[in-house]
């Protein structure tokens, strides 16, 4: 059987001025990880610049304007039809109030050190647990 194709998804740990991290609760009707906490971001469109795609996704999902600081790491998941490679960035909220799209039912701002206690989407747990224990950069 041939390998499944890869899709690229970009996600971001958005930090507010107090250093808290934004998490979004996936809609219960979501095909992937319904009801679990997730990071803002999503699939980069074909031919779209990675940074612009991530900024677009965050604006669509949250209404926020953010800036990107650095790459935190990578993750992967698999669905029945494809594998998804995630590039995970760190960024800062610059302006706006959180306004959720229909993809999510709720949001919360969490202290970075509490990320390991949250019911996160499985593919992000290892990276965010390590991030919760890192010293501030």
Radius of gyration, whole Å:
14 Å
Biggest sheet strand order reads 4-1-6-5
User: Helical content, roughly?
Assistant: 10-25%
DSSP strand content: 35-45%
Main sheet: strands, sense, barrel: 4 strands, mixed
Derived structural class: alpha+beta
Separation, N- and C-terminal Cα atoms: 44 Å
CATH architecture: Alpha-Beta Complex
CATH topology term: Nucleoside Triphosphate Pyrophosphohydrolase
Structure keywords:
137 residues; alpha+beta; Nucleoside Triphosphate Pyrophosphohydrolase; 4-stranded mixed beta sheet; 3-stranded antiparallel beta sheet; 2 helices; 16% helix; globular
3D architecture notes:
The chain is about 15% helix and about 40% strand. With about 140 residues, the protein is of the alpha+beta class. The chain has a single domain, classed as Nucleoside Triphosphate Pyrophosphohydrolase, CATH 3.90.79. It has a 4-stranded mixed beta sheet, covered by helices on one side. It has a 3-stranded antiparallel beta sheet with strand order 3-2-7, with no helix packed on it. β5 (about 65-80) and β6 form a beta hairpin. The longest helix has 13 residues, at about 50-60.
What's the SSE blueprint?
Elements: E1 6-15, E2 21-26, E3 37-38, E4 41-43, H1 50-62, E5 65-78, E6 83-95, E7 104-110, H2 125-133
Parallel strand pairs: 1-6
Antiparallel strand pairs: 1-4, 2-3, 2-7, 5-6
